[in-house]
Amino acid sequence: MNLAVIGAGPAGLALALLAAERLPQAQVHLFDTRPLDRDISGDARTLALNLGSIRLLQRLSAWRPQAAQAIQTVHISQAPPSPVAGEVWMRAADHRLPQLGAVLPYGALVAPLQQRWLDLAAAQPARLFTRFGMAVHAIRSEPGGVELDSGEAHLAERFDLAVVAEGGVFAEQDRKAIQSDYHQNAWVGSVRLAAPGLRGLAIERFTRNGPLALLPLPDDAQGPRAALVWCLPQAEDDIATLTDAQRLVVIQQQLPAVAGRLTGISALKCFPLGLNAETRLLQGRALRIGNAAQTLHPVAGQGLNLGLRDAQALVDALRDAAETGLGLDAVLARVDWQRAPDRWPMIAATDFLARSFAWRLPGLPALRGLALAGLEFATPLKTALARRMMFGG
């Protein structure tokens, strides 16, 4: 099989590595517009991984635990003015696990994945091809394969299968079959903490205007810190006009006491939020994974984890096909429907939560608080939810 992987972000690199290791007869071509000599190790964008994703990266020899901060506890709560606060605690210890997930910079994940790929490609140059600094301009499905136009000369090349893993953010994407602009902004950056009490603790706070999340980061030379994801409706978003001191006061007022005191804030970047998803992963012999298949609201922090599961499911199916002799088209169709029970509940849940913050119905915050309070004491349901967040559906 001749496989083209388009996009060398986390999902694309993971897919290429899985294919290289588990499909020994396949040729794998990894495309990306990024030049190979561009250093990505310092990219500080924050990623949240669940335990299932960490285990996958460990199997790929691309996990660097010293660059990540483990999440041992998650605290989810409803902010005032709701008459019912409501809170849920999820602890790794309750499941006899070392961690629920981890937080790390984008560069600390992509750099070792890329180096692992380059090492494998150097050892197998006749089978693994690194096509960096090369854009794919068009993908055309044909009977029994797919044709790609790539490079400055728009050279046409034929492959048995093309996997698109080039996602990007909502505002930069072409619109897919299912799309909704939430008219919300996400402000992302980091905050400084007065004490290391947040180490290992992730906080998700449902406020009147949207979710506010703090994710623990590894300490640096200046001490404890956490990644910030702050979602607000665009019509009421005046964050750009505030000073850093004012931003800190507003955030602190909305956080639960368990967060402790914030002492500083980084520069923040703003991203419009929306849902942009394909109804099917497969279109002919082209298949989409990760953000190329579904771009979600960050409320559950599951977008990348979903993409990594897409990659693993595809390679597992291709390996089974190689062993059983099942045709490629039948295998791809099976992957398409097998991923649905994992994809659609996550798409529906994040879409519902994102939309609910725009509903200013009387009593809605109280209902959300009651739901959280009930979940805290519904142990089987909380356990099932925690396992789904850690390992997917």
Architecture overview:
With 393 residues, the protein is of the alpha+beta class. The protein has 2 domains: 2-45 and 108-176 and 277-356, 3-Layer(bba) Sandwich (FAD/NAD(P)-binding domain); 65-104 and 181-273 and 362-391, D-Amino Acid Oxidase, Chain A, domain 2. Helices cover 33% and strands 32% of the residues. β19 (282-283) and β20 (286-288) form a beta hairpin. α1 (10-22) runs parallel beside α5. The chain is globular, with a radius of gyration of 22 Å.
Low-confidence stretches: none
At CATH's second level, what is the architecture of the largest domain?
3-Layer(bba) Sandwich
Structural class call reads alpha+beta
- As a percent range, the share of helical residues equals 25-40%
Going by CATH, the homologous superfamily of the largest domain would be: FAD/NAD(P)-binding domain
Number of domains: 2
- Give the radius of gyration: 22 Å
Compact overview of the structure:
By secondary structure, the protein is an alpha+beta fold.
Which short descriptors sum up this protein?
alpha+beta; nine-stranded mixed sheet; FAD/NAD(P)-binding domain; 393 residues; 2 domains; six-stranded mixed sheet; D-Amino Acid Oxidase, Chain A, domain 2
Topology:
Blueprint: E1 2-6, H1 10-22, E2 27-32, E3 46-50, H2 51-59, E4 69-71, E5 73-78, E6 87-91, E7 101-105, H3 106-123, E8 128-132, E9 136-142, E10 145-150, E11 155-159, E12 161-164, E13 178-193, E14 201-206, E15 211-220, E16 223-233, H4 244-254, E17 262-265, E18 269-277, E19 282-283, E20 286-288, E21 294-295, H5 303-324, H6 328-338, H7 340-356, H8 364-377, H9 379-391
Parallel strand pairs: 1-2, 1-12, 2-8, 5-14, 12-20
Antiparallel strand pairs: 3-7, 4-7, 5-6, 9-10, 10-11, 13-16, 13-17, 13-18, 14-15, 15-16, 18-21, 19-20
Helix pairs in contact: 1-3, 1-5, 5-6
